[in-house]
Amino acid sequence: MSSATAMFREVTTPWGHRSWRFKLARAARGYLHRPRLRIPSGATDVESATRRVLLYFMLPAWLVPGVVDWVWHKRTDIEHTSGAGESLIHCLMMTEVGVPVMMGLLMEINPLTLSVMLGHSLAHEATAFADVAYAINHQRDVEPREQHTHSFLEVLPFMAVSSIVCLHWDQFLAIWGIGGRKGRWRFALKKQRLPAGYLRNILLGIGATIVLPYANELWRCIRAQRLGEALPPWKVAPHEPVVIPEALAAHSPHAPSVIEAH
């Protein structure tokens, strides 16, 4: 029976976990063997300058206000006010920016990838409005310094996508079929890859300044709920005080001591 099971597993492996892991490793090896995109250090043409600003200024600059915004959330005690609800919105916003970033780093720019980038940028703007509204409606103090930080977090992704559109104007026109352009509507890895060192450093930067801090924020919010120091988001209505029962509030020095929200 065991041998028959093993044979059956071998037959079904094309759709199994090992097969996907193998395909991913093979794709990574093939990607690293592709010719590297080179931007001459002395080049002053518009295309080279735009690529240089995009890769070495806009993308790294986006990481800084991300950390600063996390600090403002922590100082305004997000885990005991707007809590996990707002933290999940932050995770959604990071995903809305992260998907275009990864596409720009790894994938060929064509009408499909550009459409996804533009769609995520619009979704990010809409979510940014919802994020601030949620925080204010659930009693978290959004100070002017945090609002100014949000300005950078909103404008830098917009500038980055705009730069990519300018670099690949023909692919942008192909989205709308202008001038008979069709383009290739499929996902494909870049024909000219970015330097491995750059990719490694920027991914480490994203992990250190975005993934870890906001994972910590979500963990703090969930922990506060489990300890009875905050109510789950679905138990607090907009414009209603975020409070907990007095019996539970006694266990937390941060928790408000008002009447429980219904």
Measured as a percent range, the helix fraction is 55-70%
Number of helices: 9
Structural class: mainly alpha
Average predicted local confidence, pLDDT = 84
Task: List the uncertain runs.
Answer: 1-15, 253-262
Characterization of this structure:
This protein starts with a helix and ends in a 13-residue tail after the last helix. It is an all-alpha fold and 262 residues long. It is elongated. The model is unreliable at 1-15 and 253-262 (pLDDT under 50). The protein has helices at 2-12, 17-32, 46-75, 83-106, 111-137, 144-167, 169-176, 196-226, 246-249.
Give short descriptive properties of this protein.
single chain, 262 residues, mainly alpha, elongated, disordered N terminus
Can I get a quick summary?
The protein has 262 residues and is an all-alpha fold.
Topology:
Blueprint: H1 2-12, H2 17-32, H3 46-75, H4 83-106, H5 111-137, H6 144-167, H7 169-176, H8 196-226, H9 246-249
Helix pairs in contact: 3-6, 3-8, 4-5, 4-8, 5-6, 5-7
